[in-house]
Amino acid sequence: MENSLEQKWKQREFTLASVSDLSSAPPSASLPGIARFDSDGLQIHHQSQQIPLSIDPRTVQLFKLSPVQSVCVVEGSDAGKKPLFSRAVSIQFRNEEESAAFHCVVQQWKKEVNAQGGNGRNGTVTTSKSKFDEKIESSSAKMYFHYYGQLLHQQNMLQDYVRTGTYHAAVIENRTDFAGRVVVDVGAGSGILSLFAAQAGAKHVYAVEASEMAEYARKLIAGNPTLAQRITVIKGKVEEVELPEKADILISEPMGTLLVNERMLESYVIARDRFLVPTGKMFPSLGRIHMAPFTDEYLFIEIANKALFWQQQNYYGVDLTPLHGTAFQGYFSQPVVDAFDPRLLIAPSIFHVIDFSKIKEEELYEIDIPLRFVASVGTRVHGLACWFDVLFNGSTVQRWLTTAPGSPTTHWYQLRCVLSQPIYVMAGQEITGRLHLIAHNAQSYTIYLTLSAKMWGPGAEQGGILQTSSCKLDLKEPYYRMSQPQAYALAQDQQPQLLIPTQDIHIQSQDLDEPEIVRQPSPNSSVQIDSLMQNI
Fold first, then answer.
1. Dihedral angle sign, alpha carbons of residues 7, 12, 18, 21
2. Where is the Protein arginine N-methyltransferase domain positioned along the sequence (predicted)?
3. Own/partner long-range contacts of 148-154 (Cβ < 8 Å, ≥24 apart)
4. Which of 180, 221, 484, 491 has the largest CB neighbor count within 10 A?
5. Could you tell me which residues are beta bridge partners of residue 31?
6. For residues 278 and 75, which has the higher predicted lDDT (pLDDT)?
């Protein structure tokens, strides 16, 4: 049986007892036919005529209805027409052996075609299900690529002059890294980074973009003819495309809110493993998530007051209070995205490093960060503030792109996880906890935060935890507050301290171990909240 089956694998043509196109209305009559594999794919014919169906074996799905009958479901197109649509064909074999052989050939064909891939000068795209498709929900991916396929959103990023200017400086100041080199732009968007790489003298740039923005990128690049001859735009995901050569440089802007939102860092790492030569460079090469506890009575009251609607006991005769608790927790499950005054931070920040050149893709599925701070002032801790920076580790210049509070505001702003139950601390008291990020298939993360206040003062080493507060947040569903930092007055008993640096500077590699931000005093707790209540 095995020898016979092996021979059937090599037999690229099968005689069918009957064939019926189930997609037609009504379904076509069942007639004898032939299934033939050739360089164009799988062709199924009636004895009298070919069924108007073009089948790609890599995307076909076979369902056995009986030992000798199957249904072939595939994305196909009518001859001479471009639109793709689902088709289904019922095929019946003369015996069970030929049915089993056909199924084996389809599987073997898929493996052969996927293994061969393509390596034309302009790159190709495989159509088998990629790793991206396996881990990301299709509806999320559709919305994601639709969003980034619109010029207005690309304009929003281009007009972030901190972002765009830092990328331009990092590339142009490191011409020696780009001159005469092959560059791959991962998630090229409008193609601006590809154009920067070409300006720096790149030998050739492959701009890989999966959304419809690829067409706009082609148009923009074509409008810059002196650079266009060295740039090729490839529409497809980096998990699927095939390139004709390896890259010396990867450039990308894969950062989302909290650095990891949208999970594009994983695609950046996959591109590294697929395309980058062992000695190649990545722009950027690493990122850091910075964290510090904060106090902000304004923000806490603003969020808590959103749930006041559900405290009504007579809303058109209906008592809404049974849902108040759920609504209250729901509002606190949203991370807050805005720009805040760095003086709200009540302890020196710490950071967690993600080295893009070394990390494995799977290590980005779950990120666990232990937290330990020492409070600078006595106050109420309302949660954890987070921001990020990335390093362009060029051979000539090292340049940071930072989203820190107090620095020029970017379109990423900063992010704060707000506790529904604040904790109280005194100056010198230790704050411990955990920030745990777990990736989900909507291209984001679930955030689990725990903060605890430990014993302080004489004998603290024998003490334990005094207070603990936890929250669960969805990074996919933030509260975009987008307010500019408010001016907070210092309490009379607080001494002014150094402010956060307000502009990017060149940082040497030995500075990587130093936190960027120096501790700031907390705001005056007696500041009136009238302005907040007007905005609620």
1. positive
2. 289-441
3. 148/189, 148/211, 148/213, 149/211, 149/212, 149/213, 150/213, 151/190, 151/213, 151/216, 154/189, 154/190, 154/213, 154/216
4. 221
5. 19
6. 278
pLDDT in tens, 446-465: 999 999 998 766 656 666 77
DSSP 365: S
Cα angle for residues 75, 81, 86 (degrees, 5° grid): 20
Report which residue type is found at 354: I
Instruction: Name residue, tokens 């396996």.
Output: 134
pLDDT per position as a tens digit, 294-344: 999 999 999 999 999 999 999 999 999 999 999 999 999 999 999 999 999
Q: If you ran DSSP here, which 8-state letter would residue 423 be given? A: E
State how far the Cα of 244 lies from the Cα of 117, in Å rounded to an integer.
11
Q: Tell me which residue has tokens 């210092």.
A: 490
Q: Which helix (H) or strand (E) holds 227?
A: helix 225-228
Sequence-ordered list of residues with C-beta below 8 angstroms from that of 244, at least 6 positions apart, any chain: 119, 120, 121, 122, 123
Rg (CA), the chain: 29
The dihedral built from the CA positions of residue 327, 328, 334 and 337, taken in this order, carries a sign that is positive
Among candidate residues 368, 354, 340, 381, the one with its CA nearest the CA of residue 269:
354
DSSP 10-40: H--EEEEEEEEETTSSSPPPPEEEEEEEETT
Predicted TM-score (pTM) of the model is 0.69
Q: Is 463 left (phi over 0), alpha (psi -120 to 50) or beta?
A: beta
CA 375 → CA 210, 372, 406, distances in Å? 46, 10, 20
Dihedral sign of CA atoms 231, 232, 238, 243 in order: negative
pLDDT in tens, 275-297: 999 999 999 999 999 999 999 99
**Which strands form 69-76's sheet, in the order they lie side by side?**
41-46, 31-38, 13-21, 85-93, 69-76, 61-66
Catalytic residue among 98, 173, 239, 262: 262
Determine whether 253 is an active site residue.
yes
Long-range contacts, stretch 168-171, CB < 8 angstroms, 24+ apart:
168/196, 169/397, 169/399, 170/283, 170/284, 170/392, 170/394, 170/397, 170/399, 170/401, 171/196, 171/197, 171/199, 171/200, 171/251, 171/283
Nearest to 449 by CA among 467, 435, 469: 435
Task: List, in order, residues 6 or more apart from 49 with CB less than 8 Å away.
Answer: none
- Token code pair at residue 148: 């980034």
For residues 313 and 297, give the distance between their C-alpha atoms in angstroms, rounded to a whole number: 27
Q: Minimal CA–CA distance to 272: which of 300, 288, 252, 256?
A: 252
Best CA proximity match to 364, nearest among 282, 437, 284: 437
Which is it for strands 430-440 and 444-454: parallel, antiparallel or unpaired?
antiparallel
Q: Of 98, 173, 253, 516, which is the active-site residue?
A: 253
Q: In whole angstroms, what is the distance from residue 281 CA to residue 289 CA? A: 21
Map tokens 């860092």 to a residue: 265
| Token duo for residue 163 | 């972002």
Cα–Cα dist 154/452, whole Å: 41
